[in-house]
Every structure is written in C-alpha cells, then in structure tokens.
Amino acid sequence: MNPILKFVLLCFLAALGPVAVAQATKQMTQSNRPEATVRSVYREVQLRALSGLPGSDDMQILAPYLSASLRRKIAQAEACGKDWDRQNGGQLIKAPFAWSEFGIFSGANERTSPATFHIKSVRRAKDGSFQVAVSFTYRPGDGPGSWHVTDRLTQEGGRFVLDNVFFPKDQTYNGTPYSQNTVPPNNTRGQKGPIAIRLYLEPSTGSYFHVPLIFRETSDNALLNTAPLLPQGRTVYISKAQMSDIQSLIAESIFSWEWNSTTTAFEPFMGLEPSQRLQIAVLYSPAGMASGYVARDETCGKLAAFDIPLKSEPRALWEAQLFRFDYGCSVPLFRRDRYPDHDKQ
After folding, report:
1. Domain that holds residue 72
2. Model's pTM, two decimal places?
3. Residues 122 and 193 in one domain
4. pLDDT tens, 263-291?
C-alpha cells in the first residue's frame, strides 16, 4: 500500500478508536507477509487447475504474485514449447519437457487441482528470502493422501512474490540424493565418459534470468557449430576431442564433487534452484552426474579458460564468451551481434 494512503487511512481510523486502528494495522501487516502471497497463488491454482504453463489469461491473474525472474522463466519455457511445435511441423509428438503435462505450482496429473492447501511452516533463509512449506490434499475421487512443495518467496517493490517452487525428489526426477564426495569428472566409475557439461549461475537477487549453457558431444557434422535453445538450456554441440579437453580443464578447476549415480539427463532449467556460485555439472553415459562449484571470485577466470579448447569452433567459442560476458566478465573484442539467430530462438 502507498505509504501516504496508509497514513491517511490510519488517521481516519484513529477517530474510530484504538481497537479499529489495531485491527487495521494487523490486516495491513498480514497482507504483506510471504504466506499471504502463497495463499493468493494457491487459491487461483485451485480455481484454474493449471496443467502445463499458465495461458495468457491465467498469467494476467497470477503475474502480480510472481517474481520477475519466474515470469521470465515461464516466458522462456513457452518459447521453447513453440519452437518444439515449429520444428515438428505441428505433429502430435510428445514433447521432451515435463511442464507440458505438469502443474508448475503444485504437481502433475490430479495434483494440478488440489482440494485443500495448508501452510505448514515459514522459514527465513540466509539470503533474505523465505521458504514456505505447503501441503495439499486430493479432491474426492482423485485418491487419498497428501503431498507437499516448498515455495521460495522474495521481495520486489516492497511486496512478497513467488520466485520458485521446489518439489521433493520422489515427485520429480528418478535420482538418489546427492552425497558429498571427492569425485573428479575424469573418474567415470565404469561409465563410458562425459556426454554433456552444463554451466549454470543464477543469483537469487539477479534481475535477469540466465539460461544454462550446455556443451554436448556429437559425431554429427550437421550439428557441430550449432547452439539451439532446448528445454535444458542453450545447447552447444562440440566434438569428442573438444569434450575431452573441457573435461581435463574442469578437472583441474574443482576439487570437491557431488556424485549422483542414477541421473540420466539434465533437468529442464525451469526446475533449477538459484545458484550464487557457478555450478559445473558433468553428465555421463549411460548414467551418472558429477557436479561441483567454482568460487565466486574465480568465476570470470575459470570461464575464460574455455576459450582454449573451443577456439576451433567459432559458434561454440562465441556462446561461451557470451555466457561470461553476461555476468560482467571482461571479453576483449567480443561482438554480441555476431550470431543474430541466438536472440530469435
């Protein structure tokens, strides 16, 4: 509420007595709490049974409750969906991303329209955001039981907005919880070797959403030197030799790795949690992923090192340089307009 209008309202209520002032003050304070935003969002979820991405009419209602970052993620995901339809000429082919059938606020299938919701807890995080745990129950006929999610709330313009929704592991991906290990990515634990490497850095306080950059190995010459925007991130296709060089590069950069032995694919970027540090994830074939982090003050230097193994592929080199350029790193003689198709995808 506008501070001046709030002051005028309280002055008016003062004439009605201290009880009225106390009640009005309590209501205004409660309306600017993270749980108030969560309640507003899930009332709309109950009414609209949102399966997939919100449509334009739904977004008009939900937008005031969503952060700028989350709105951008939804727009990016929508663009990916449209590009998938374009590439497949309108054929009825199942899309390779979860949000086409997934309620991004509450879950898939019957969970898109919960019967009830209940705020279980509200916890303030170290970065100033709030973690709100929400439980749901099924509608009659959809089955017994309950489930839960955790919402992340941040402040924008003096009010709380929903910035992300996190689902328990057993509700999303078939992966075991990460365990801390010293696992350099060249120790493949019986795997055939890395097939893709993902770079991701998305500060929770950022005003611009950065799509992850993925390097993926290919033997198809038609794919080399291309970089389509896919649900998992901007995907740059490189040769096996270049993948080996990058593998050696990052093995020297990170000393503590988390290993997941069952991961078979990178998840869509819509589901990634914010990361204050550069995360490097190495995907192996047929299964397994190692991930580690780069110290914040070393980010630009570590990213600059990617120029060496990628110098023979102009598009791959440009995408790597753009990735670090967008984080404010110095990139001498960089031309952002060299590949106009990058911003058209």
Report:
1. 32-171
2. 0.50
3. no
4. 888 888 888 888 888 889 988 877 788 88
